Amino acid sequence: MGLQHEIGISAIGEGFGDTTKNALAPVVGSLKLGYKGNIAQLIQGAFWCKGISPVDFNNEFTNNTLNAVKELQQDAGIAVDGIVTVNLLAALFDMSAFVLVAGGDKNVRQLQQWLNADYSLYIGIMPCDGIYQRETNVGLIYALQRAVGIPANVANGNFGDATNAALKSVSLAVGSTGLLVKIVKYGLYLNSMYGGDFSESFGANVATSIINFREFMKYPNENSGVADYTVIKGLVTSNGDTGRDSIALDTATQLTATDVKHFKDYGFSIVGRYLTGTVGSNFVPKNLTTTEVKTIIDGGMRLFPIYEDGGYVENYFTASQGQQDGRTAISAALQLGLPAGTVIYFAVDVDFQEGDIEGTVIPYINAVQNILSGSIYKTGIYGTRNVCLHAEKSGINYSFVANMSYGWSGNLGFKMPDNWSFDQFVEYPIYGIDIDQGASSGRDKGVSHVNSSVKELNTEFFSYLKNIQDDADTFVENMDNNGNSTSNSLVAARLVCQLYRQFKYGSLPWAVTAGALNDTWIYQENKKRNITNDNSFPVLTDSVTGIEIDFAHMTAALASLLYFDQSISASGIQDLAGWAGDLLTGISDSIDSVKEYSSLRAAMEDHFGHDATKGSSRFGVADLMVDVDAVNIYVNFKNSTKSLYSIISDYYNDGNNTRRFKNYMINRFSDSSSKIESDTRNILSPEGTLALNAEYVAALATFKTYFNVFYESDQAILAASVYKDMIQKRLEN
Predict the structure, then answer these.
(1) 315, burial (CB in 10 Å: exposed 0-12, middle 13-18, buried 19+)
(2) Does residue 484 surpass a pLDDT of 70?
(3) Over the range 339-365, which residues count as b (16 or more CB within 10 Å of their CB) and which as e?
(4) For 497-509, what is each residue's pLDDT tens digit?
(5) What is the CATH number of domain 248-440?
(6) How many alpha carbons lie under 13 Å from residue 643 in its C-beta half-sphere?
(7) Taking the CB of residue 48, how many other CB atoms lie within 10 A of it?
(8) Contact at 8 Å (CB) between 274 and 288?
(9) What are the extents of the domains in the chain?
(10) Which one in 83, 132, 272, 496 has a CA-CA gap of 20 to 30 Å to 207?
C-alpha cells in the first residue's frame, strides 16, 4: 500500500495488480544507484521481509540495495544484472519464497528457475521454493504453448483450443530431441513417474516412464512409450484428453432400463449414483432406489454409491456433520441391500485452498471413516486432487477425483493421488441424460449384486429365537425350583443364552462367570433342532451397521450379567465376561504389535474396537458391538416384564440399536466419561473395593492367564484412557 501511495495510486488496496504494475512502469527506470526517495526505503523493507539483507534501511538506493536486487535475481533464476523491473518488484512485494523451503524439491526449484529465466517477461516471476503449485503448472503450460509454436502474445498458460489443436500432431519417441522433450520430462517428474535428467533428449528411460504413466492413469495404449497428445495433456492438466475412452460415468439422474442400455452401447460398464437427496431448484430426486439398483445390475452394469447432501459449501465440513453423514449413508446403503465391502464416496464439491483442508475436510472425512469402520462399508472421498491427497495421507484408501474442473486451484499443480478409484474428466449428455465421464483404475470394482433388506435377512433368526424362548418358558414351568425365588423370566433368559453360548462359551471358566449349563435343557433343544455347532443357528444382521452379530459372543456376555443379576453400573466379574475381557485381549494384541506403530497408544487406538490395520485383533468392531449390546439388552430386560426374545427383537428391529453407544455410556457408566476411565482402570488393575474382592482378583488372574495377557500398571492406565476416547468417538448425536 505504501508503494501504491508513492506512485500516485489513489484507490489503494491489497495486492499487486495491473493498476499497480501500470503505474510502476514509468518509475522503475529511476530505481537504481543514486536514486533517493521513499520507494528505496520501501524496497529495502521488502527485502528485509523476504529474508534478503539490504544492510541499509533509508531512502537511498545504495550498493547494498543493488546487491540485494542481484541476490533476488540469482534466487529467481533470471539475469543477474541489478536492473529493477515491474515483475521483479511484484515478486519482491509478495509473500513468495525464492529459496528452497521445507518440503520443497530441488528439481522443482530448478524447473521454476528455468521458467523464470525464459518466460518471466511474459508470465511474471514465479516463486522458486521447490513446491509444485499453481504458478508452476501454469508456467509449464506456457512453455508447452511456446514449444508447439503458439506466439508469445497468444500463449497464456491456459490449455485452450489453440493448444489442443497444436498438440494433436505431436508424437515424441526414443531419439526425439527438443524443448518438448524437456517439458515431458518435467511433467513426468511432477507426476512421480521419472527420476532422470532434464535434458532435451528422449531416452529409453523416458519411454519406460511414459508406459508407467499410461498404466497408472489407465490411458489407451498402455504399452506405448510414445509421448502423444493424450500423454502430454495428461501430464500438465487434471482432465487430460477428454476424448479418450473409459468405462465409468456418474449421473444425478434416476435411470431406466433404456438408459442403462444406452450407457452399455457407449461402452460404459460402471455408473456412480447418489444414495440420497435431490438436485436442482425444483428438487428432482437423485437418490438410488431398490428398483433402479436392480435395473442397473440386471442391465449388465456395476454401480458405485456417492453421498452428497450439502457438500458444496465450505462451512458444511465439520466432524459432527461427518458423523451424521456417515450414519445416514450407512442406513441408505443397507436399505438398498448394498453388500459388505461397498465403497461410499463422500463428496467434497468445493475448491478448497491448501491451508483450509486440514481444518475442515480432514476432521469431516475422519469422522465419516470412524463411523463407517463400525459397519460393513468402506470410506471413499470425492474432491479435487489436493483434497484427495490430504485424505489419502489421513488414511482414506479410495478417491473419486474431480479432475473435470482442471482450473480449480486444488487440481492445477497437484499430481493424481495413488489411491484413485475413479477419474472424472468430462461432462456431456447421452440421450438427454447429463453424465460425467470418468476412468476407472480397477481399485473399486463397484457393486455387482445386492442383498435382501436387513429386515428380510433377519426373519428366520427372530422366528427361530421366538421358538427357543417358547421352549425355555415351557421348560421353566416344568422345573422343580426347590424354593428358588428367581423369577421364571430370568431363568428362561439364562437358558436361552446357554443354548447359544454352549459351544464357545460353555467351558469351566465360563461356568464360573456366567453359570453352568443345564445339560438337560441343552440336550433337549439340540436334539429337537438338530443343533451340532454354532453354524446351526440362523444369522442375525445388525440393522444399523450391516455387521453380522456374533450372537454366541453377545449371549455369553449377557449370560454373565444375568447370572450375577446386579446393578449394571457396578464393576465386577460380569465385566470380564464382556467388554473388559475383550479389552484384555486388545491390550495383549497391542503390546504384541507395538513395533508396527509409533507408540503403544497408537497401537491400542488401532486395536480397541477396530479391525486392526497392523497385526491381529481379537477386539474388533464386531466384538465391541456385542459387548455394548449385551449391557443395553440386560438393562432393558431388567427394567421390563417382557421376555428376553421380546427385548432382543425390540433392540434390533425397532431402532434401539441406533444409539447403542450413547445408551451403553448411560447404562454402564452413568453417562460420565470420567467413570469410563476410572472404572476401566480399576477393573484392569483392581483398586478400592475390587482390590478387596478376592473372588474378583482371582477371576481377573484367571482371565489374564486364559487369554495369555500380561501388562504393567502404567499400560493399564493407558488402556483405560484409550478405551474412554474410543467410546466417546463412537457416541451417537
Answers:
(1) exposed
(2) no
(3) eeebbbbbbbbbbbebeebeebbbbbb
(4) 999 999 999 987 7
(5) 3.20.20.80
(6) 18
(7) 15
(8) yes
(9) 1-95, 170-236, 248-440, 454-730
(10) 132
Residues 230 and 135: their CA atoms lie apart, in Å, by 22
Distances (CA, A) of 477 to 523, 578, 596, 641: 18, 30, 56, 17
C-alpha cell, 534:
454354532
Q: Is 170-236 in the same CATH topology as 1-95? A: yes
* Dihedral Cα 674, 679, 684, 687, nearest 10 deg: 110
CA 71 vs. chain centroid, Å, equals 44
Residue type, 494: R
What is the distance between the alpha carbons of residues 686 and 533, in angstroms, rounded to a whole number? 37
The model's pTM:
0.90
C-beta pairs of 23-28 under 8 Å, 24+ apart in sequence: 24/86, 24/89, 25/86, 28/84, 28/85, 28/86, 28/89
Q: Tell me the torsion sign for CA atoms 309, 313, 316, 318.
A: positive
Which residue, 288, 239, 251, 244, is CA-closest to 267?
A: 244
How many Å apart are CA 542 and CA 296, to the nearest integer?
26
DSSP string, 273-300: EESS-EETTTTEE-B--HHHHHHHHHTT
Look up residue 248 and give its DSSP letter.
Answer: E
Length of the chain: 733
pLDDT in tens, 368-388: 999 999 999 999 999 999 999
In this structure, CATH architecture of domain 170-236: Orthogonal Bundle (1.10)
Q: What is the 3-state secondary structure (H, E, C) of 161-179?
A: HHHHHHHCCCCECCCCECH
- CB distance 658 to 650 below 8 Å: no
Residue 623, by phi and psi: left (phi above 0), alpha (psi -120 to 50) or beta?
A: alpha
